[in-house]
Amino acid sequence: MKKSTLIVIVGPTAVGKTSVSIEIANYFNSEIISADSRQLYREMQIGTAVPSQEELEQVNHHFIQSHPLETPISAGQYEKLAISLIENLFKKHDYLVLTGGSGLYVDAVTTGIDTSLPEANVEIREKLETKLKKEGLSSLQEQLKSLDEKYYDQVDLSNSRRVIRALEVCLATGKTYSELRNNQSKERSFDIIYVCLNRDRPELYERINTRVDQMMDQGLLSEVKSLIDKTHLPSLNTGGYSELFDFIDNKTSQHEAIDLIKRNSRRYAKRQITWFKRNDKYTWFHPNEISSIIEHIKSQKNI
């Protein structure tokens, strides 16, 4: 008896994961589980490139604007919620699609979250959070680069929570966060097929720049202004939001903020590609190669 199959479709920001995932899900009569650490939140729509209403109506989506910002979902919590959902959905589907650009959330489902890391060190964390407030995120990013360049190249550097957690472990143990992470995978009850989408860098960067302009036209600044009383929440310390908060605080001009969003998004895309390249289970495709992706999935299942 063949196992149920989870089709994982990842790739850098703006590469075209949403449209490809919808086509694949429709072909295999499936549903889509989002593995995006920001599309989870109801209040973050434009800046996280949530699928349009038309796209959401084509296929059932899960973990899209499903939680309020005041209830942050860690990768560990996401793993439990997603695995429970997946096991339930496999009762009526042979295939499911997991898609997103948050590598840690994808790994949470496919291999499980590491439980071997030390518990939080409150004293060190408080010092790091104080440094964040006084010197800004860039100072913590540089500190992480000096202590653990390997993880620095993989992590979403705009996510202060992850940067602080890695620094906390480095400072508490005297070892790098990278070497302490347990790479032993959890056994899953389903097969997994790994697909990564990518484009030539100039093409990808042009799409990123265009998407940022479109977000501004769609009202990203108004969305950010509506969240001004929630800036203390870690989930909002992310690309597309933090730059516009600085503009609202008169730290930059609007033009500078938009340029920074584009630059930071391009850098994030580069780190995402680095993250996915470390897993040799991925087969890489251009988003236009839908038929090749389908044939690849079918060949993996001998159908």
Helix and strand arrangement:
Elements: E1 5-10, H1 17-27, E2 32-34, H2 53-58, E3 61-62, H3 75-89, E4 95-100, H4 103-110, H5 122-135, H6 137-147, H7 149-152, H8 160-173, H9 177-180, E5 191-197, H10 201-218, H11 220-225, H12 242-248, H13 254-277, E6 283-285, H14 290-300
Parallel strand pairs: 1-4, 1-5, 2-3, 2-4, 5-6
How would you characterize this protein structure?
- The protein is α/β, with parallel strands linked by helices and 303 residues long.
- It has 2 domains: 228 residues, Rossmann fold, CATH 3.40.50.300; 59 residues, Histone, subunit A (Orthogonal Bundle), CATH 1.10.20.
- It is 50% helix and 9% strand.
- The chain has a 6-stranded parallel beta sheet, sandwiched between helices.
- Strand 2, helix 2 and strand 3 form a beta-alpha-beta unit.
- Helix 3 packs across helix 4 and helix 5 crosses helix 6.
- It is globular and about 60 Å long.
- The two termini are 14 Å apart.
- The model has no long low-confidence stretch (mean pLDDT 93).
The CATH class assignment of the largest domain is Alpha Beta
Give me the count of strands: 6
* The CATH superfamily title of the largest domain: P-loop containing nucleotide triphosphate hydrolases
Describe the main β-sheet briefly: 6 strands, parallel
Named at the architecture level, the CATH assignment of the largest domain is: 3-Layer(aba) Sandwich
Number of helical elements: 14
Q: Would you tell me the structural class of the helices and strands?
A: alpha/beta
CATH topology of the largest domain: Rossmann fold
Helical fraction equals 40-55%
What is the number of independent domains? 2
Tell me, briefly, the overall form.
Answer: globular
Could you tell me how far the N terminus lies from the C terminus, measured between alpha carbons in angstroms? 14 Å
